[in-house]
Amino acid sequence: MTGVFEYRLPFEVIPDSWGLVQIQKQRPQEYSLITRLIHNLSDTEFNQVLSSVTANDNVFEIRATTPDTFISECSMKKVSFTQLFVWVVEGLQADHPASATLEALYFPFVPLKWTKNIEHAHVIELDLGQEIQVEVKAEGIPKPMYHWFIRGPADSDWKSFGDGPQISFQYLEPVSYQLFSCQAMHQILVKSDDNQDIQGIYSEQLELRLREGSIHIEVQPLTKECLIGRSVQLEVKAISDQPLTLQWYQNDQPVAGACEETLLIQEFSLDDIGDYFCQIKNDMESKESVKANLTYLVPTEEQLESIEFSNENIVIVQQPNFKTEVKCSVGDKVSMRCVAVCKYGLKYEWIKQGMNKDLVDGPNDPIHITKVIPVCHGMQMTDEIPNMDNSVTYWRYKCIITCIDNGERLESDDVLCHMSTYASESKSWATFKVALVICQEEYFSDEFHHLNAPRLDGLALIKALREMDFQVIPLVNLTLQEVRNAVDLFCTFVDETTYALFYYNGHALGYGEETYLVAKDSDLSPNLPLEAQLIWHGEIELRINRCHPLLGLIIYDSCRDVAPDSIKGLLSQAHHEMITFSTSFLIAYGTKAGMRSFEYANQSVCQGVYMKHLLKYIRANQSIGTVFESVTDSFTREEDPSIAASRMTPEFKNATKQILFLNSPFRTRKFSTGFHKFFQICRYEPLYGGFKDAGHSNEFICDLAIQRDPTSGQVIWITGGKQMADCDPNEYGAIFKIIVGPSEFMNEAYLKTEFKCLKDTVLCQTVRFQVIPMNCFLSKAASGKDGHDQLFRPCKGKKSFGMTDGPMFEPQGSTRQMGECSVIELQMSRDPPKFKVVLYAEDQQTICPGVLNVDTPIVKNFPKLRINNLVYKDLVYLVPFGH
């Protein structure tokens, strides 16, 4: 039997070079304690330790997955107690009980002492309801734990209050004082050499005294919507050490006889509307509750039947109202409601009359153009603006209420609906415009060659769309699932008042009239399901149609040439849902079915043939149908007949139900919820808005400083990691700046570097810097005309780096900017991009301490192109593909 571990003084620490085998032989009780600690870790805690091992293990190559195999490997590979201690502390943090226990075995005993104590005889006076926080701190080995005690005037002894170095207390009882004290004890029971328990230490006592006469309101009155004719109740509750008196007020006037905690209004009427509060006072103090606003709620017809009113005269409690920022047009619906109450039964009759008022010749009396026209009976009125001649400038509506029993007749206020002289364009204006632009250049399969124009075509279209106030989600080089996820993301911004534009530029295949989009991981295998290789165009169109956009515009800027024989069997067996549109849609194709699409390959800047003509007209002040008619005409008129006649011919299918303009203004001047959602989720500013003193920033900026060591003469880092807060800016020799900001495509970002000499001007001639991607991809443009871009893959888990692990940046004389590269494939990440920086000086490599973590919207808010609902709960995630 190894026995139970006891921490007995004098305690001999475990030598740091001992392994578990030697500890088991020489110190069996401590060995039993260590193994028990590891076995008692939760799965999450044990995995944190394994992550620490993975991040710091360069020698032992521990591959354990369970506590037993971990202990076995550590014993077999002679892991020192020091190394084990470091793994546990870095994995679980120093204040974890397991870390604290190992620390007690590793360091000599240190008795407890207070480093932060309560002042001697400290007294604080508080009001009732006031909250205070108290904190103490002690040091020692084994580490301390804390327990608080409280004692009031009615207590005969101290009572337990809580654990931890900090407590919060709110004075909620009208007692004269409360005493507090904290006991600090070693987390491990320590025994002296004569087998006596080492007791803890007590802090000084803190006395909290109640300020005499203070008042605390425990329950505040609540704002309410009150049903006309029903009773309503307001309530307040307060405590004090002195007797209290109460008085309720309505609109700053005292309510007669209202001197209790509860204010009851038996039959709520229009006279009872207003702000209510309660004044609470004693002989020493007076306090007012918050104001509760009582507004009236008009009863429904069913509720009116169950309410008994005492008034014999008709009282209108809801006047008809019709507010709109624009004039009404023929065919518009006009809806309004009038509600009155009375002891007797009521009859409602709605009437209207067409009027004309000359606004040019002066303020003349209006002319009656039509007779009085009955509309309907009942509280609720719904009418449709009739098709009259232009002489009617407005319609006047009125409700006449008659008491059935006594014949009393009362007319409501007039409601004027002003007419437009033509069908209003605003009915076709959007409250939000959003576009999804997907450009596919690269493909894994040899079946599809890489393309040159999609990225540049996409950038040109993005610029044009933003000029027309579209909010754009631009993405490049996506997989099949990523395209589907991107469409789901796009649809979260689409509703009945949105212009929704989807643009795809890349390879596509045709089969009859059907089009299948190609993603970068698409294949053409007869042995795989069709949906696992290609995306049927109807998936996208039906998905967007389910959101019922005001306008759905879909542009396929791609080939539609005949699919190869290898998958014709799959295509012939495909059964797709019939495509029908519930709202206005226009589908545009860069070429007809069975034809290919071409690029201008001989120009210095590559451009798609279709995009050349689309950019001419997409900003034009023309209806959407006319825009694409112009694009087709321009193509036929200007392109070489050898292409336009038989090899590439654009076409479009127009299913719009009204005249719509892409460049039309918004329906309202106020930002819709779509703008707020898009800004919070897709823009950089909410992430880094606080990094600069002036204005908003959409860049992550990090300054890293170096200097020449005065002792060794070597160039060293003096900021980075934990050193950042300890360095003096006056000691900087030079600054290496890293700037990460938004690319034109949302799943990419730019990374720029700058260098500035401060004190040591020789440094710029002797140093180079390397940026290492730890969990993302970096791409640096080739310097030569015929060179290829350099791709740098993630270096996760590496502790040392070579010249090919990341792009290299060298100072260029006195120029601050050193170079730029791109962070790509961000849609693949779940975690923010991480980078390390390496300094090369005089053939010496020095890694900067710490890791740069850079948040980007796509990773922060919609990793893997799926919205993070835990963060954005107000976004309704719509039904995904295939449901």
TrEMBL record:
Residues 431-560 form the Caspase family p20 domain. GO terms for biological process: proteolysis. It comes from the Eukaryota. GO terms for molecular function: cysteine-type endopeptidase activity. CDD domains: Ig. InterPro entries: Caspase-like_dom_sf, Caspase-related_regulators, Ig-like_dom, Ig-like_dom_sf, Ig-like_fold, Ig_I-set, Ig_sub, Pept_C14_caspase. Residues 226-295 form the Ig-like domain. This is Ig-like domain-containing protein. The lineage of its organism: Eukaryota, Metazoa, Ecdysozoa, Arthropoda, Crustacea.
